[in-house]
Structures are given as structure tokens and as C-alpha cells.
Amino acid sequence: MYRIRLHGRGGQGIQTGARILASALFVEGFETQDSPLYGAERRGAPVSATVRAARAPIRERGLPARADLIAVGDESLLGVAAAGVLRDADERSWLLIRSGVAAEIWRSRLGRSERVATFALEVEEGAELPLVGAACAGAAARMLGVVSRASLESALERELAALSAQARAASAARAFAAWDELAALAGCVTEEPAPIGAPLPRPDWVDVPLDPADVAAPDIRVPLTSVQVRTGLWRTLRPVIDDALCRRCSWLCSSFCPDGAISIDPDGRPCIDYDHCKGCLVCAAVCPPHAIRVEREAGRATEPEKVG
Amino acid sequence: MSRVLLSGNAAIAWGARLAGVDYVPAFPITPQTEIIETLAGWIGSNELDARTVMFESEHSMLTAAGAAASTGVRVFTATSSQGLLYAMEMLYSVAGWRAPFVLVNVSRAVAAPVTLHSDHGDVLAARDSGFLQLHAATCQEALDLVLLGYRTAEHPDVRLPALVNLDGFLLSFTREPVELPDPELARRFVGAFEPGASAFRASRPVSQAVAVLGGGPYSYFRYEMHRASEHAGTVFADAAIELEAATGRANDAVECYRSDDAEVVFFLIGSLSTTAKDAVDRLRESGTRAGLVRPRLLRPFPTAALRSALHGRRAVAVVDQDLSIGSGGVLHAELAGALHGQAGAPLLASFIGGLGGRRVGVDELCSISGEALEAASAGRPPAPRLLYTEAELREVRKLQAIAHEERHR
Fold it and tell me: By the 8 A CB rule, do B294 and B319 touch?
């Protein structure tokens, strides 16, 4: 069975990418399964989708214990623990990253001796959340080596039928560009053989103890617990204050920030808490001297996250 | 018949479409909303000749479903988790009206604490309501059980609403190959809803009893529901045979997989049963005669079929994806009740797993089959066990430590 996982952010077409890949495998005669995984988050939050393909009906469900191929549409997710990109990567897993950085640099960053590939994919300049799902599907299909170009084309037609002709053509172009780019690695991902009947180790079960109710109840008794949830991870655009232009009318940006993520320091200077700024840009819109500029997060997020 | 990729939610919507539903009262809730969206899309594009109405709550939605079904139109509705519990009062009422329709529940564990993922705490809370209860293991079954649900619910000797359950995420959002029945075949199979003399007409008021009853009449009416539900088992079996003849797909009230000569059997419901088949095959390869017995039909409870399927087995590992707080696994208690006093009944071992979408792995299933067999050799059932690992407890301890820091900041 092949087990493939696609990672990206809400809004990047990752679920669609998984559907395209599964559809292409289905056209090739495989039994397939595709399933997205997401929570209650919004656009920009980390999402993943799993594709399974086998020659026999698939009985496994949910998140697989390991993946043969992990395709990452947004390289910034590699630095985000909550995205769980590498959680179940083992030495057999291939890692495919959409990145302008060379594969050998990623190998050294991630401490992997092999099985890391990258693809570049041109995206429109200034795109906030580039659509990468179809490209991930095209690249993954090529790396599997069991999907023909015609099957990929038929899957794209099938899965994108609801889109406009223009959007459909753009997605297909991205998928085939990625397909072409991965030509040298065609067939590098191999199917994991079915397990043989050796007994599995006993799980490390524990008896759950009786804890006092003030420990064992999931109550939230204090304010500010939202501080623990770093919603700044969802941000795709970053407001940046130019100190030289700022007139210290800080009540404006800090009052209008719907997340209370702008504080004022003793000198009256506004400071953005990037751990919790979701990038809605209300501050940039209300700033009278236009002292808040907007930068794309993509490309800068491979640095470790800083506390704002 | 064509084979297409469908999510569980899409398969359910197809089931309703192929059954030719007339009326879809609705209220959104994750992970069910996609079903209603799909049906509303088809109604909007005139691919489905039906009406849909968005209500202000599940309570009103269920009331509308029961009222509409009482007039003789074919009704479909769907909900999940808190939504099902919010409608609970009306579940009992519309079943008491003997209003037949199909309600789909996409299982999602009940708050608090809150989660979006699946367990059967929601649907099992409805087990005593009078609704028939059918549990799907695959997206294909989700579709087939909607058709079988209408056939059984609308039968003149049954006339009870049917609840079809599928697991959230594991089926609802999972796309897999599904055979779409030919529309004409499906229409013939489900047939027309013939309410006969029982259809409510505003211009022709009829009363079958008085509004407020004493114990005698009340007992009669409630027990008639019980008799009708029991009879639904026969109606379902006949309909399943007919569907199998038309499609080649078996949908017996109880699915038995390699259980005929099994010494140890898994007993569980829903999509976990496909994982259990993998465990059965693995155990067989390593020399353990394992099997699976999985009810599709939970109401009426298929007591006779289960007694016969489990007769002569040494041990049964019951895996409940639910927890009756203060008692234990619901399926374990129900199965124990059905087997009590039966000669040749197997030893039952109770395991709780899969709460809130927790993954139950093949490794866990293989281990619990061993524990059940050891208990059978010792002649004593083991203490019920929560399937819970060291790593999971460590994760909770970490969350608690963070919360504690917060509290004392």
C-alpha cells in the first residue's frame, strides 16, 4: 500500500490536491482513499490530507502510522511543531518540499542523509496563499511512478470540474509543471509491502489513575489561556511598524486590533505580538501616517519563530 | 451501476437522492453539514425534486421531520453529536407518532470536553428512543443503509423512524470507491411511501387515542413500538436479501468475518470493523483462529443472530467506542444481556477504545484478543480496560502542567 500525506495551509487547495492524486490513482486501477484532517481553525492554519492506494480494498482509516511520501506545499510548516509534518517520517519516507532552497540544504537542516526533494513552482508575485494542492498532486504522482500523464489529466478534469475554465487551466499548468520538474525522480517512492504475520509488540497500556477532580476536570478557571495558543501561526501577511514614521498615536492601532495583539511600551511605541497577530491588517488600515507596511510571511518563516 | 469516489457524507446524500426524498429539514453541525449542502445544491440545480428548510435548531428540525413524515411525504434529515442530543426529546416523540423517515447521525463525541472527532456516545444515547438504528462501516454501506432504512422504516408493520450512523471524519470526510446503484433500480427497491390510512390530513382529522393516557393505554402504545421494532428485524432481513440479489452486496443485520471456526472474536460496530478485519487476518497468519462479529443493526438488537454467531466461540473481545459513565461499555452490557444463560456462550472481555476519535490500532486489537483468550483459559473475565498508552497519559500530564502554570500565573 502507498501512504502519502500532503501538508499546507487552509486555503491552499491541499484537500483538492489529495483528491486529484487519489483520483489519478483510481483511474490507474488502484483502490484509493483520501481524507483531509483539520480542526476548527480558519484559513491559513496548518492542514493535512492523507491518500492511500493499494491493489486490494483498503481497510485502514484515519492518520496512517507512517507515510511513504510527505509532500509539503508550504515550507514554513516545517518550523511549526503543531503542523506535525515530520511526526511519522522514517528512513523509508520521501520528503518533498515546495521551496527555492536546494534539497541538499534541506537534508542538512533536517538531519536526513537522503530522500529529500524540492520543487520550485512559480507562483504569482504577491499571492497571499499560493494554490499549491494541484502542484503537490502532480509532483507526488510523478514520484510514485505508477500514474500516467493521461491519468493525471483525467483526474484534474474530474476534480476541478466545478472551477472556471481559467482556474482549471492554471491549476493543471501548475500540476504538469511540477510533474515535469520531478521527472528525474519518477518512481522513487515505493509501495510498502504488506506486513507479515509476526506478532506485534504489546502496546504500553497504563491504568488511568483516579485523580482529584480539580486536576481531572477539563475546566478553564482563569482568563488568558488563549495566550498558550499561538494563533500567529495562521498569519499569511505580517504588519510591520516603521518606527520612523510612527507618530505614537498608539491608541488607534492597539484599540482596533481585534486580537489585542498590539501593546504600548512606556515610550508610547506600539509593539505587535507576532505570536498572536493573525495578520488581519486592521492596524495597517487604520494607521493615519501609513506607518504599518505589509510583508508576506512566505519565505521568512523558515527562521525560528520569535516572540513578538 | 458505476463505481465512483465518494466521501461518506456524499454517499449519504446519494442515498437520499436515490430514495427520492421530498423534504429535507436541516440545521448545520460539523461533521454532518456537507450532507445538507450536497442535497441543497442538487435541489438548487433541479437535479433533486425536493424542498429543504433551514430551522433554528435541531429540536425544530426533528419536529418538522416527524410532522412531514406523518403527512405521507418522504423525509430525510441529518445531525451530529450535540445536535442529536438537543433534538432528543423529539426523537422520542416522533417515534411515538410512528412517523417513518431517515435521520442520519454523523458520530462525533459529546462535550465536555469538546472535540470534532468520532465516538458513539451521541448515537447510543438515542438507543431507547424507538428509532431503528443502523451502523455503517464503509461509505458504500452508508449509502446502502439509507435505502434499507427507508424500506424498513416505511413498512406498514413497522412505521418507525430509522437512524443511520456513520463515523465522523473516518467515514464522513473519507473518500473511497462506492458503487452508485442505478437510479431506476434504487427507485424500484425503495418503492413509494404508502402511508395508507395513517396519513395526516388537516381536512380529515383522525384520532387513535386521547392525548393524555393512563398506564394501561400508555403501556400498550409503547409496547406496540417495541413489537414493531422487533418485527423490523425480519423486514430488514428480507429487504437486505432483495438488495443483495440486485447489487451483489450483502447487508445482513450481523456481519460475520472468519468467525465460523474462530476461538476468539472481536465484537464492535462502525468503521473500526475494517481495521478489525486486518487484525483478524494478521492473527490467522500467526496461528490464532480469530474472527469478527459486527452488528449493522443495533435496534432492533439482533439477539438471535448474535447468539448463533457466537455459540461455541471461546472468547469475545468487545470493543466499545463509547462509555456509559459509572457502568462501562454499552455494547458489552448489551451483548452480556443477550448471551446470559446461553449454553456454550463465550467469555466476554470488555475494552473501551476509540473515545473522541482515539485511534485503535491493529497492534491493540491483536493484544486484546490474546488477553481475552487467556481469560477464557482462566475461566474468569478480566477487569474492563481502557485502551490507553503511557505516551497518551504523558501528553495529558504535559497539558495539565501547562494549565497549572497558567492558573497560578
Answer: no
